[in-house]
Amino acid sequence: MDDLSNFQWFSQKVTLSRQDICRDVYKHHRKAIKIKKEKTLVRNLMRIFDAALKISNERGFQAMTMRSLSRETGMSMGGLYAYFSGKEDLLEMLLRTGRITIKQILEEQVNQATDPESKLRSAIRAHLFLSEVMQPWFYFSYMEARRLGYAEKKKSMTAEIETEKLFARIIEEGMNRGVFVVRDSLLTASVIKAMVQDWYVKRWKYAKRKVSVDRYASFVVECVESFCLHMGDKK
Amino acid sequence: MDDLSNFQWFSQKVTLSRQDICRDVYKHHRKAIKIKKEKTLVRNLMRIFDAALKISNERGFQAMTMRSLSRETGMSMGGLYAYFSGKEDLLEMLLRTGRITIKQILEEQVNQATDPESKLRSAIRAHLFLSEVMQPWFYFSYMEARRLGYAEKKKSMTAEIETEKLFARIIEEGMNRGVFVVRDSLLTASVIKAMVQDWYVKRWKYAKRKVSVDRYASFVVECVESFCLHMGDKK
DNA sequence: GTCTATACACAGATAGAC
DNA sequence: GTCTATCTGTGTATAGAC
After folding, report:
1. Is there a domain that residue B82 lies in?
2. pTM assigned to the model
3. Residue A67 pLDDT > 90, yes or no?
4. With an 8 Å Cβ cutoff, is A62 touching chain B?
């Protein structure tokens, strides 16, 4: 799929799914949400999410006060509590929406390719482009996940393991078919994930060096293929 | 150097340098520290540092209250303020001690090897073993660095860039000598760093899978060499 | 050198007017 | 549906006893 070579496609997908997400949030947090008109809910919830991500990614979620959220959204503190029952609740919403979006979009991408080589390439590129479009969310989730309550922590650990398994399965398939060198597939998946994560965690670094997603993606693919195929030359 | 194959050597080094570190801390924070006896200072400062790292790595530095630090150290809140003038000050001390220890120890390791291949191997292993011994500090520094004041943030960014340049220089030397494939040396250094960081950031994952430092180090070296030398087979 | 008690600031959350 | 005003809990920091 040619669209994978840039992230426009992902960007559209993410924007379009915003309505669905809000409906889902409403379903799961009905008790807490006092807003009845869907249009108002969608508009303000998005404002709140964007503001919360912005503030949290600068100083941390715990350091984000309701007052600063009020300032950033332009809504009053009292008004904010019509959209969630408390900070914990907001956190849960934020994490949930991200997980759902990612799942929806990645599922559309899965198994578009057939051979292990192009599957691996697609998986790496898809992850990178998605994390580029939703960078604030990925960064937030990465940084805050491990300091949450037990339940949320577990969820994010499971998500991490699942992503790795996705890569590991592709690699194992390649090994079984004899196109990839036989090595520890889980460790290989881990280092791939580490490289993908570096893109959204250290974005300031790559921005400063003017490295684009496309270039980074190509580099990671080259690196992984060289390891899996033991080819040093460009393909 | 054979000692590099396990991290006992690093462990000893770190323990031995504790006294020096305290002397350095005392020098830079003289105004804030009200303790006169060196023995008391060293003992309690270490208690405080260990406790602060433990709490912060669970819930974040910002979420660590003086009350929780008091509980963890067994010291009273009033007593704690004899060792630093406030949370910000404690933070600065913590980061400083880590940077100094790392610098001292890594400098001893630099240029033990001569050819680019073994230099690269040594650099990777040294970083991994050091981060293993000082895991709480590395994790802390990684997680808290980006939400500090401007000055401290700058310092930790510089440290990150410097580490990358260390790797990049070795790789460039290898390219110039014709033993490494010519590629983007900075991007190569970045992905190496990403793999090394994954070790101390995702330690829970590797612990669960019973992957040892030694095994992880060997794997990363294999991965990097395969990319730089375009050899897929074991060396 | 270490403790207890407390000052003071600011956080999250809500009630009730509009 | 949104605002202002305010309650209550908890945070950092210090003064002064031991």
Report:
1. yes
2. 0.93
3. yes
4. yes
